[in-house]
Amino acid sequence: MKKIKPHWQILGALVLATLVALLLRSIDAEAEGGFIGGFVGFCDFVGKIFMNLLKMIIVPLIVSSVVAGIASLHGMAGFGRMLGKTAGFYALTGLFAILVGLSMVNLIKPGLTDGEPNEIIKEAFENNFESASESAKEKVAAAEAKAKGIGPGSGGFFKLMANFVEGMIPTNVMKAASDNRAMLGLIFFSILFAVAITRLPVDSMGTMREFFQSLNDVMILLTRWIMALAPIGIFGLLVPVVYQSGGQLFLVLGKYFFTVLASLLIHFVVIMPLILRYVGKVSPLAHFKAMRTALLTAFSTASSSATLPVTMRCVQDNAGVSKKIASFTLPLGATVNMNGTALYECVAVIFVAQVVGFQMDLSQQFVVVLAALLTSIGVAGIPSASLVAIFIILLNSGIPGAEIAIMTLLAVDRLLDMSRTAVNVLGDSCAAVVIAKSEGEKGILEPKPEASS
């Protein structure tokens, strides 16, 4: 019997989880505290175990892959060239994403009705803020306080970028390894460590390089084992999300939802494929086929970092990118390249401005574009990063009622988070492919017999 390919297993888990969750929601609410509540709770537990397994291998995978990849470059010339290409690619695609979001939110105007602020949405903002749980209010308050700490009265975006650069240099490498929010510092240390290896005598350098190469091979094997559990884990992750998502707010915010999703879709199926075709000179369809398992995993987990092991496997095994390119571009991209997040921030801020009746001219909207690009990078290591970023942009733009609007956006954010994470991961993988082609690598996205996903 022919084995079902991983991407079909994951897609089946997504469909089944959605159907099961919708069925549970349709059952009488009185049964919620019994079997249904217990089943949803068990699914949540299974999903968390799967996420923990993925997160468990992130640190050793990043360290081993970055060190092994850069050590194979034989010096700083190749590293500097690759760093420049990677940074340029991420900045350019991030700008494209934001401009797509800005165009769509100004075209559709989800916060307006007949040119006037939508009073129904404004009322929903206020009602949802009043009825929100204390934990949700505390989360929003903490994000607002964090944003004010790097807002206009405190040095603004200079402080934001200063904090970002400071966060790149960990005072304690072991602590950085234990904190997902300090992942950029771990990458920076790994890069320095790898460059230092290339300065060792030939015998010592070979020994160190072989050790980290072997460690990386072990981590890839562990990734394969964990991904064998992906259909079960993804089922567990999705059931609680669909079950707990009430329909009322989604109906009220339907136009906003459509704007965000349509913008993400344009970037996903138009902008990035055009870059692959005309910059990378590769087939976009072949790339999507190679990355389907990673994209489905990203959508299910809503975490670029947790998806990183899967992304690296797909880029190397399916797309044919070398380990030295993938091991540098992908860990860095999972930390700082947030195309979907930057797009979402831009749409969310303009949407809030429309609802509260705050008029924004072109110069103010340009500030939003620049702020979305900077914050999508600069707040990568902060808890609830996109929430803090939106607060920062709202505060810098002078838009009133931020905390009330944010509470409602937070309540319906999970599905949008899943979608923008898939866009983020696509951007990372496209960077790896385009940079590999620019470095003269052969066999990128060429047909392979019985290629696994």
UniProtKB/TrEMBL annotation:
<feature type="transmembrane region" description="Helical">
    <location>
        <begin position="182"/>
        <end position="202"/>
    </location>
</feature>
<feature type="transmembrane region" description="Helical">
    <location>
        <begin position="256"/>
        <end position="279"/>
    </location>
</feature>
<dbReference type="InterPro" id="IPR050746">
    <property type="entry name" value="DAACS"/>
</dbReference>
<feature type="transmembrane region" description="Helical">
    <location>
        <begin position="53"/>
        <end position="75"/>
    </location>
</feature>
<protein>
    <submittedName>
        <fullName>Na+/H+-dicarboxylate symporters</fullName>
    </submittedName>
</protein>
<dbReference type="GO" id="GO:0015293">
    <property type="term" value="F:symporter activity"/>
</dbReference>
<keyword id="KW-0812">Transmembrane</keyword>
<dbReference type="Pfam" id="PF00375">
    <property type="entry name" value="SDF"/>
</dbReference>
<keyword id="KW-0472">Membrane</keyword>
<keyword id="KW-1133">Transmembrane helix</keyword>
<dbReference type="GO" id="GO:0016020">
    <property type="term" value="C:membrane"/>
</dbReference>
<feature type="transmembrane region" description="Helical">
    <location>
        <begin position="222"/>
        <end position="244"/>
    </location>
</feature>
<feature type="transmembrane region" description="Helical">
    <location>
        <begin position="87"/>
        <end position="108"/>
    </location>
</feature>
<dbReference type="InterPro" id="IPR036458">
    <property type="entry name" value="Na:dicarbo_symporter_sf"/>
</dbReference>
<dbReference type="InterPro" id="IPR001991">
    <property type="entry name" value="Na-dicarboxylate_symporter"/>
</dbReference>
<keyword id="KW-0813">Transport</keyword>
<feature type="transmembrane region" description="Helical">
    <location>
        <begin position="366"/>
        <end position="395"/>
    </location>
</feature>
